[in-house]
Sequence to fold (872 residues):
Amino acid sequence: MKKIKSVEEALSYIKPGMTIMVGGFLGVGSPELLIDAIIERKIGDLTLIANDTSFPDQNYGKLVVNKLIKKVITSHIGTNPESGLQMHSGEMEIILTPQGTLVEQIRAGGAGLGGVITPTGLGTVVEDGKQKIEIDGKSFLVEKPLRADVALLRGAKVDRKGNICYDLAARNFNPIMAMAADIVIVEADEIVETGEIDPNFVMTPHIFVDVIVKGGK
Amino acid sequence: MKKIKSVEEALSYIKPGMTIMVGGFLGVGSPELLIDAIIERKIGDLTLIANDTSFPDQNYGKLVVNKLIKKVITSHIGTNPESGLQMHSGEMEIILTPQGTLVEQIRAGGAGLGGVITPTGLGTVVEDGKQKIEIDGKSFLVEKPLRADVALLRGAKVDRKGNICYDLAARNFNPIMAMAADIVIVEADEIVETGEIDPNFVMTPHIFVDVIVKGGK
Amino acid sequence: MDSNKVKEIIAKRVAKEFKDGNLVNLGIGLPTLVANYIPKDVEVTLQSENGFIGMGTAPLPGQENPNLVNAGSQPVTINEGAAFFDSSISFSIIRGGHLDFTVLGALQVDEKGNLANWMIPGKKVPGMGGAMDLVTGAKKVIVAMTHTAKGSIKIMKECTLPLTAKAQVDMIVTEMGVMVVTDKGLLLKEKNPLYSIEEIQAQTEAILIIAEDLKEMEI
Amino acid sequence: MDSNKVKEIIAKRVAKEFKDGNLVNLGIGLPTLVANYIPKDVEVTLQSENGFIGMGTAPLPGQENPNLVNAGSQPVTINEGAAFFDSSISFSIIRGGHLDFTVLGALQVDEKGNLANWMIPGKKVPGMGGAMDLVTGAKKVIVAMTHTAKGSIKIMKECTLPLTAKAQVDMIVTEMGVMVVTDKGLLLKEKNPLYSIEEIQAQTEAILIIAEDLKEMEI
Fold:
């Protein structure tokens, strides 16, 4: 069970047309090397699930600029003008989802739940075409679970088995996405020996992690 | 915002007839002093939400033995024969719920979700009388959120603001219940100064906690 | 009025709403300024939806930490007792009713408490980010904004832009006054002494109900 | 057969199913013994549904930690690389399909893969604990049990006791043989050489389909 691999080996899991989840919030807590490697190899036609589309020159924002994304499921595209342009030109499909719904959809995908029952989006365009449910006289939207073929995460400290600790606000979507993809690849700022992370403070248990890549930080 | 209080002061939040959640798994990670104080004061007619009913001579198991509970929502009563006896005699109502459903119901109650969509319990008596939902051709049960008037937790290390760290398997339901009650009382093995817990490793953020009681450990 | 003065009036007034122990989320832009006016003796915890509570002021130059930014990507600091968590917990806090206040800007807001602040069809579609959850989940929703957008009216009888949430706004604070959403419509509770009621109404599509004990705002 | 020998045969056989890297949940009682027979060169991670992975053996006397127990309240140890989490993560692992195997006992199991192991109406109602989620969520469900309960039949055409889950069992391992649930019914793939097929069928209500390549179990 040797999980530490080269970027080259890690990239072999990512094929054109796949759905990828990328951890991060406006690029904070996102894997740099892995994203650059996808761009270098021009792996395209991807569906991206991420909180936002970051900035044009940063991290997964560059995937959009390089036209490698055919569809995005996200809560915000305002910091990357290229997203808006490609949406209006029809080059990229964009599904805008409230942030709290998005993270619960990913959690549901990882936790074996059939969907999310949320009040968020009621009475707005978010409810268009979606199933509603009434519970004790109150209306809610039913949002479907989200999963990906591959999740690309960024960890601050990762042990050889794959246990992850994140740093400060770089945690964000990472631990949730870790549960919701067939293959989970983490880019580690630091790789430590197994046993060096206190078992009480592991933020993503190693069983969710398939591949560890040493990051450039 | 002085949260550290005496057991006496903490108990003033708990009234007969209330719904209480108690953290713990077969009594591991449960507040000892608070439970004993409830028994001493004979605060009864309570609805208990807990993973199990523990053992007759341990922790919240003693609430059952002392006949202070009129209703339990739980996943397991097998370790406390008194629960079965009171169920059969009709003295105590017992709602048996799969453990994974129970914890998600509590989480939904704390997270503002309208319910839980789960495959667990399909085709069993658990589905009796419950709403079902079909999503992409698959059937699921809809389980309602759970909340309590008061949650009673046990923390290993708690700072003066109320940030909590749990120890090993004593974590279990505690951080989830911390989100799902109007008043949250934590019994702390150790109270430390604010700032002594690394902000990265707080397991229950202080905003969920109303009252801190020094435990006897 | 000077635009900085306008912002100051609004931010200062919003800050008066908070009580000791409150948990508050301040939106990007004008609402961020509210933090500067919270009285020293009122302990307010700020939440940042990218995953922490206990947000502090901006760091000194050179002391920025790339992993410590607010939801608008600006470097911040944390106060003692801060705590970090993942986005699912962050939005459990937001949607679960644990936030006492969310303060955000608006493109439009109306007399029923409807809010539009996330898109202008055909022009600008940034996305809703966390706004829909914030407005749906917070105990109290305060819209903090300039009364008009360069003269064009924002406080409507009924929003014409796509909604962020339906009937969730509790209070609107502008440089002209403080309005509360009631069953009967918008109640003007405080006004800037520099404006007459008629002047404020002229910049407002919704019909303002004037509070019997109408007060003057501090300016 | 000696009851310890029976348990050993079953536990040893179940352990052979695991592959390097698997995550496994072992139920209380007989399934717990499976841990003793996992080959040294196969790295299996054990999950305990009260909130951790990396469960190890029982501690030496005097080294018990009250906060480190398995789901049956027995003191355990942890291996290097263990991780603790709350019950919502624990059941996200279980229900989310992250468990490769769950091994548990049964009161009854039938040829459709239905399982009953949580109550006997009017007699014993311990509750389902985590069993329903485990059986619903694990990739592979193995029932590990004595073939009969003191002579009374447990492998049925159709369970008569309240179900734990419908059509989720993949494999049944008893001291008499190994049965796999197929569309056509229960396929006997291995048998204990001490019993004839007829003897096994006589202790089984479901009609056993005999595998063409029927193998002998190691005893």
User: Anything to note?
Assistant: Residues 7-114+144-194 of chain A form a domain with the Glutaconate Coenzyme A-transferase fold (CATH 3.40.1080.10). The helical segments of chain A are 7-11, 32-40, 61-65, 81-89, 99-111, 174-177. Chain A is about 20% helix and 30% strand.
